[in-house]
Amino acid sequence: MRFFICWLATMLMVSPVFAQETATPNGIADNRRNAIALTGATVYLPGQGYQEDATVLVRDGVVVNVVAGTDARDGYFAIDMAGKYVYPGFIDLYSGYGLPTPGRPVQRGGAEVVRSGNQAYNANDAIRSHYRAVENFTPDADSSETLRDLGFSSVLSHHADGIARGTSTLVTLGNHNANEAVVIADAAAHYSLDKGSSSQTVPVSLMGSVALLRQTYLDAQWFAAHEQRPFVDESLEGWIRAQSLPQIMEVDNWHQALTVDGVAQEFDTDYVIRVGTDAYQQAEKLAATGARLIVPVNYPDAPDVADPFIADEVSFSDLKHWELAPYNLRLLSEAGIEFALTSAGAGADFWDNLRQAVANGLPHDDAIAGLTTVPARILGVSDRLGQLDAGALANMVVTSGPLFDDDTVLLENWVRGERFVLNTGLDERRGQYSLMAGNRQLAVALDFADGGAKLSLLDGNAEPDADASVDASIGNDLISLTFTAASDTGPTRLSGWSVDNGWQGTGQTAAGEPIDWRLTYTGPLVAPEPEPDSAPVTSATDALPSPVLYPFSAYGSESLPAQQDVVIRNATVWTNEDMGILVTDVLVRDGRIAAVGDNLSAGGAVEVDGTGKHLTPGIIDEHTHIALFSINEIATNSSMVRMQDVVNSEDVNIYRNLAGGVVAAQQLHGSSNPIGGQSSIIKLRWGMAPEELQLDDAPKFIKFALGENVKRSTNPASIRYPQTRMGVEQVYVNAFSQAQQYEQRWNAYNALSNAQRRDTVMPRRDLVHETMLEVLKGERYVTNHSYVQSEINMMMTMAESFGFNINTFTHILEGYKVADKMAAHGAGGSTFSDWWAFKWEVRYAIPYNAALMQLAGVVVALNSDDAEMSRRLNQEAGKMVKYGNVSESDALKMITLNPAKLLHLDDRMGSIREGKDADLVLWDEHPLSVYAQAQTTWVDGVPYFDRARDQQLRQYIADERARLIAAIISEEE
């Protein structure tokens, strides 16, 4: 048959190109110059749009040219592509094709693993930058076929193991050996925040991963500075070599994307960031980074909402994400972000998902660019991949229609000029036919969609006849069809077999009369008229089904509240200043307290009637763990980690704290180790991005810890050092002694002349030692988890021996025993009101602790250390009036001015005074009462919580949940 012969001749002629010329042939060498012309196609040329009736000329696996017209040139074997569309071959930048499956770490129980492997690699096994994918790449026929079926002709393959993953290799997906498949041996360097198969204990946290990444940048810079390396480290050598390549960083969500962008800025590099499907939630922030993205096209499954009790457990953000994730690419495009697309995670749903994205408003050209030109630009191979200009590899995708039409089928995938038929038979048999059935002649169109044949009778205008019907079944050789024309009284039934240019056979008319018939090919289908520079696609709705909220969670809003000039009149004002408590007015302008006094001139400010209400400074929580993605790193000295790297600005506890009058908090590392991480001090600016929560120019703090947690009393399986209280002391002595030695080495090096430095190994920058030095120099303050008086005394003595003071003892439930020594030392105390007996070392805690420390002259604050208590700190302060007979003003200061003092922020916060930040709370009752509710909480003059608006948000959440659940149920039905 014509179709089979033509296809077979073409496949025999097109042998693999770019053979490995150094290989010795075993048999007859095939040295034919393969010249092919794909004629009459509609060709998509990036930047130019669609060119109709064009011919693609290919020789030896390389594009020669794309020319107008349907005639093949002399010397080219012509393949008729009339009615078909040709696109540049697609590129996937995120794949593990042809590489071993990454391993996972072996669980070690309670043992701490600190040693790396025995090879000359990095001290941390998560740094695998020595790995070269090209050395481990083996073509995989099954995997390559799966990728080709999706339209990909080349992939960037990397080993997804570790924080530094080494280099990837760019390969094509034809029937070539590894030597011939590789386009670029080392195409890009890869990174992540997942330590992968490393069995070492550190890092165990997200912030630990960021710290290791930062330290490795410093190590590599130090290593590279020595022409004569101080030792062998193949991982650092690989890192150094790979810095000139594209740097691809994989993250799980937009929070991590913004964090790693900060690392990139710190070390003057640019990441191409492989993001998640939530990137749309902060598209503007991601656009501001200037980073190019690699974006998956997989969408979340619909949450299980059939059972109303189970539905109640589905978070509001999960419901919203289910609805808006299919708009991710559109919103990234609208933000002006350049992105490549990956099939990773989507699998067989890739095209359905991508077409849905286009239907939802992703521009057609941006979608194609994400598969072609953008990944090619990222890798610097635009001359060879992603387009069909002369000299490019002949990687092409042939489709039955415009790429994103629902019924379009991927017909062929050409890889370096090697033809792979994806849908057998669809390419050669579709077209227009003449049907001779008895004495009748009809025009018929044969097309293929959704894997099946579709025959339709045509009217006089060569358009499908709406009044006719055809049902056909077509195999490789046999055909059966039943048709009813507009004037027929019944169906005509035919069956037959393939012949040259069509089929023939016998059948019966509607009246049962036998007839002979023949279906003869007359020409290609008439191609749809494409729009200029774009293909017809489903119209996108202008509006999203629901708005993106900030933050993307319950109590989020489409727009953030604005800063207000406001005057609160006739409120009972708790100033925490010499004015004491008085009924007066407070004026706020530009986020600061402008005046406190009677009958203030407002000058257009918002008027708030405070009559019968109480106005206080905002509450400051000196010790919290809310709004963090991770809390503990496990290293004995984790001073290199930063809590600011793991701030979760979407945590609903921020909003709940605002509802309890809290305006700021110190986010602390946990107490799993003696020396924890660097603190983050935030203002609770609900809806802002993590970096916008950070308090500008805030003093620097670090978390230390003592007691049962540190020596692992609750984990008998642990063998991590230290395991005794005296061992804990030695950790501090060692850490500070080593920091002093570190400083001495740098001082000695800096004192050398340039000539002397050339013969001297420069000291290595160490983030741990640098942080400890900041403490010794008074540049970073210590807040110290503590319970037992003996350890409290030990810490003060140890600190004094190194010339610094402990700034704050937190918890400090035996502080009343050593309050006089704390006052003499200059340490403050941040404690609980009435927590005791929750573990052995707090058995001597008493509810009079805070009052007794205050009587001794200690600055005392009350902290939460608990997400639930943190929104009721005003009640904790009220307990001090009950237990310790503390004055109401002093009790309020324990949650406002005193924590501001402990954080060295009392010049800005903690009291109501002209010039201070407008962090204010308006209460409907006495602020220390259990009945008091915050009506409005201002942070920098912005009403981030307002009780009336809160009621509206609650109703909105209820309505949205109901709508989304109904939509999910409707879709499943």
TrEMBL record:
Pfam families assigned: Amidohydro_1
Gene3D superfamilies assigned to the protein according to its UniProt record, in alphabetical order: Metal-dependent hydrolases, Urease, subunit C, domain 1
Molecular function via GO: hydrolase activity, acting on carbon-nitrogen (but not peptide) bonds
Domain Amidohydrolase-related: 331-401, 855-939
InterPro entries: Amidohydro-rel (IPR006680), Metal-dep_hydrolase_composite (IPR011059), Metal_Hydrolase (IPR032466), Metallo-dep_Hydrolase (IPR051781)
This protein's name: Amidohydrolase-related domain-containing protein
Organism: marine sediment metagenome
